Amino acid sequence: MIKDWYKKELSISSLQKRNGSTNRKKDVMKIQSWLNLYSIGNPLSSTATGIDGDFGPATEKAVKNFQKAEGMNQTGTVSHALFAKLCNPLREAFEQPLSGSSFRELVLEVAENHLKNQPYELIIKGQSNSGPWVRSYMDGNDGSPWFWCMGFAQAIVDQAASAIDKRFTGLMPKTYSCDTVGTTGLNKGLLTRYQTLRRQPERIEPGDIFLLQKSRFDWVHTGIITRRIGDIIETIEGNTNNEGSRNGIAVMKRVRNYRKSKIDVFSVAPLA
What we know:
With 272 residues, the chain is of the alpha+beta class. It contains nine helices and eight strands. Helix 4 packs antiparallel against helix 5. The model has no long low-confidence stretch (mean pLDDT 97). It comes from Poritiphilus flavus.
């Protein structure tokens, strides 16, 4: 895989504990981030806590609450094994063995794997678009300016391409920009404009990438198309929310009406 930053999010340097002599601020922030992410899917767990790199009594109690929720001894310390359990959703999303028999099937399978592991962004030091999921999609970058919808889409395509020993950069350049991918699609004859798609909807295929057009050469959001039903496409998108925002909070499964939105489609046919 080309986009393999996620591996750096799967480990800490040493055991971390309250006022520990081997504590590292970055490692503690990783732990605090995963405790907060766990609380999103388990709201009764009481694991949400500040993300400041200080392993104090609040972080210790949040760790104990996580251990209690998972049926473990409540030590309040984070070993390598415990951290592996905290960040297991990320490992599952990126390393789950795949079974798809075609590239398009693999794209959908990978996207579903990520979705079910609940990728969310966090707010850290006042910055949205932060946390381990965002850094994994954005090659270590995070913070408010780093809209991550294209980083997510390319991570999915990269993972699927790697499963068949291909490189997604043969399809499009590695980028975080919807405009770069849209322009590449035009130059390669792989981007179909929304006007054509409304006349020829059969050109929309599962595994393709949609690009939401703001103006003719300006695209503001992207995601993976999972299927087309009548006037509707179903999608899996990063950095979105219930309103379909291009700067939301999570990976979500959505429906969009391609006849009412300016949705262009980038075909992944060269890898299929």
